[in-house]
From TrEMBL:
<keyword id="KW-1003">Cell membrane</keyword>
<keyword id="KW-0449">Lipoprotein</keyword>
<keyword id="KW-0812">Transmembrane</keyword>
<dbReference type="InterPro" id="IPR001640">
    <property type="entry name" value="Lgt"/>
</dbReference>
<keyword id="KW-0472">Membrane</keyword>
<feature type="region of interest" description="Disordered">
    <location>
        <begin position="305"/>
        <end position="338"/>
    </location>
</feature>
<dbReference type="GO" id="GO:0042158">
    <property type="term" value="P:lipoprotein biosynthetic process"/>
</dbReference>
<comment type="function">
    <text>Catalyzes the transfer of the diacylglyceryl group from phosphatidylglycerol to the sulfhydryl group of the N-terminal cysteine of a prolipoprotein, the first step in the formation of mature lipoproteins.</text>
</comment>
<feature type="transmembrane region" description="Helical">
    <location>
        <begin position="87"/>
        <end position="107"/>
    </location>
</feature>
<feature type="binding site">
    <location>
        <position position="134"/>
    </location>
    <ligand>
        <name>a 1,2-diacyl-sn-glycero-3-phospho-(1'-sn-glycerol)</name>
    </ligand>
</feature>
<comment type="pathway">
    <text>Protein modification; lipoprotein biosynthesis (diacylglyceryl transfer).</text>
</comment>
<feature type="compositionally biased region" description="Basic and acidic residues">
    <location>
        <begin position="327"/>
        <end position="338"/>
    </location>
</feature>
<keyword id="KW-0328">Glycosyltransferase</keyword>
<feature type="transmembrane region" description="Helical">
    <location>
        <begin position="17"/>
        <end position="36"/>
    </location>
</feature>
<feature type="transmembrane region" description="Helical">
    <location>
        <begin position="48"/>
        <end position="67"/>
    </location>
</feature>
<dbReference type="GO" id="GO:0008961">
    <property type="term" value="F:phosphatidylglycerol-prolipoprotein diacylglyceryl transferase activity"/>
</dbReference>
<protein>
    <recommendedName>
        <fullName>Phosphatidylglycerol--prolipoprotein diacylglyceryl transferase</fullName>
        <ecNumber>2.5.1.145</ecNumber>
    </recommendedName>
</protein>
C-alpha cells in the first residue's frame, strides 16, 4: 500500500495553501540568501537583492506561464480563466528565466550596476532555487517521466519509499525526473561555488556557466518526460536530437510525447550551450572580458552622485564657506559602494 502526499499543505477557511507555493517561496528565499551573502563580499547592500527578488520572482512566474501557454494555446483558448491558475501546474523554466532576466536587466541598469556582475552573484541562487523548486513537482505528481517498474525505482535506483510511493500514480510507477534534475542542480551549485573562486573567471562567465550546466542536464532529463512541449521537426533535426540523447538509452527509455517529434526544451538547451560557449570565446578574443569576477563592483549611479556631492562641496569651499565646524578640512566618511 502506498501513501501519496496531499498537494494541499493546510487550509485557512476557504483558502487552501499548496505545497507547491510553499516550496517555490522557500526556493526564492534560499536563492536570495545566497545572493545577499555573496553580495557582502562586494559591499552591495542586501536591500538591493531583496528588491531584485521582489521584482524578479513575479516576473519569472509571469514569463514561465506566458511561455507555457503560448505553446499550449489550444488547451487554453476556450478557457481563458485557466491561464491564471498557476497552482494547477503548467509553467516553463526557460520562460521563467526569460522573465526574470528582463526584469533584472531593467532593475540593475536603473541602479547603475553592470548586469553581468549582478547576474554572476545571482547564478548560484538561481540554480539552488531550481533544485528546491523541482520538489513542487514531486508534491503535485507532475513533470514526471515515462512508466517504469517498481523494481527499477527500488532496486536499481535504490530510492527511498517516500519517493517511490509518490511516483505511483493511479497504479503506475513513473520516472522521478524532478529528482534527477534536482540532484543535477545541486552538483551544479557546488561547481559554481568552486568556479567563482578561480582567478581566471571573468565577469559574466559564472552566469554563462550556470546556463551551460543547467541546459546539459535539462537536455537529458527532458528526454524522459511525457509532458514536454514539442513540435514536428525535419528528419535531420530529429536524428541530431536522438543522437545526442542516445547515451541515455543504456539505462533509460525516452518518454512518449503526445505530439511532435522534437522537444522544445531539448532544442533550446542545445542552442543555449552552443551560444553560451561561443559568446564566452568571442568576448575573450575581442577583449570585452577584461573584468574579472573578483574585481570590485561599482554602482555608476552612486559613484556619479558621490562625484556630484564632492563637486558641490568644492564649489562651496571656493566661495569661502567653512569646510567644518572647527574650520579644518572636511572628511567624507560615507562609504562608496562597489
Amino acid at each position: 500500500m502506498y501513501y501519496a502526499v496531499d498537494p494541499i499543505a493546510f487550509a485557512l477557511g476557504p483558502l487552501k495553501v499548496h505545497w507547491y507555493g510553499i516550496i517555490l517561496g522557500t526556493a526564492a528565499l534560499v536563492g536570495l540568501l545566497l545572493a545577499i551573502q555573496e553580495g557582502k563580499r562586494f559591499k552591495i547592500p542586501s536591500d538591493f537583492f531583496m528588491d531584485l527578488t521582489l521584482i524578479g520572482v513575479p516576473s519569472a512566474i509571469v514569463g514561465a506561464r506566458i511561455y507555457y501557454v503560448a505553446f499550449k494555446w489550444d488547451d487554453y483558448k476556450d478557457n481563458l480563466s485557466e491561464i491564471f491558475k498557476v497552482w494547477h501546474g503548467g509553467i516553463a523554466i526557460y520562460g521563467a528565466l526569460i522573465g526574470a532576466i528582463i526584469a533584472a536587466v531593467i532593475y540593475t541598469r536603473r541602479k547603475g550596476y553592470a548586469f553581468w556582475r549582478i547576474a554572476d552573484i545571482c547564478a548560484p541562487g538561481l540554480i539552488v532555487g531550481q533544485a528546491i523548486g523541482r520538489w513542487g513537482n514531486y508534491m503535485n505528481q507532475e513533470a514526471h517521466g515515462g512508466p517504469v517498474s517498481e523494481a527499477f525505482l527500488r532496486n536499481t535506483l535504490h530510492l527511498p519509499n517516500f519517493i517511490v510511493d509518490q511516483m505511483n500514480i493511479e497504479g503506475v510507477y513513473y520516472h522521478p525526473t524532478f529528482l534527477y534534475e534536482s540532484l543535477w542542480n545541486i552538483v551544479g551549485l557546488l561547481l559554481l561555488f568552486v568556479l567563482r573562486r578561480q582567478s581566471f573567471l571573468r565577469a559574466g562567465e559564472l552566469f554563462f556557466g550556470y546556463f551551460i550546466w543547467y541546459s546539459i542536464g535539462r537536455f537529458y532529463v527532458e528526454g524522459l518526460r511525457t509532458d514536454s512541449l514539442a513540435f514536428t521537426a525535419p528528419d535531420w533535426l530529429v536524428s541530431l536530437m536522438n543522437g545526442l540523447w542516445s547515451p541515455m538509452t543504456v539505462l533509460f527509455e525516452a518518454g512518449d510525447m503526445s505530439y511532435g517529434n522534437v522537444r522544445i526544451s531539448q532544442l533550446l538547451a542545445v542552442l543555449i550551450v552552443i551560444a553560451a560557449i561561443a559568446y564566452i570565446v568571442w568576448r575573450r578574443k575581442k577583449g570585452y572580458a577584461e573584468t574579472r569576477y573578483s574585481d570590485p563592483i561599482v554602482s555608476l549611479r552612486q559613484a556619479a552622485a558621490a562625484g556630484a556631492e564632492a563637486s558641490s562641496d568644492h564649489s562651496h569651499n571656493a566661495a569661502g564657506e567653512p569646510e567644518t565646524d572647527e574650520g579644518g578640512p572636511k572628511e567624507d566618511r560615507r562609504p562608496v559602494e562597489g
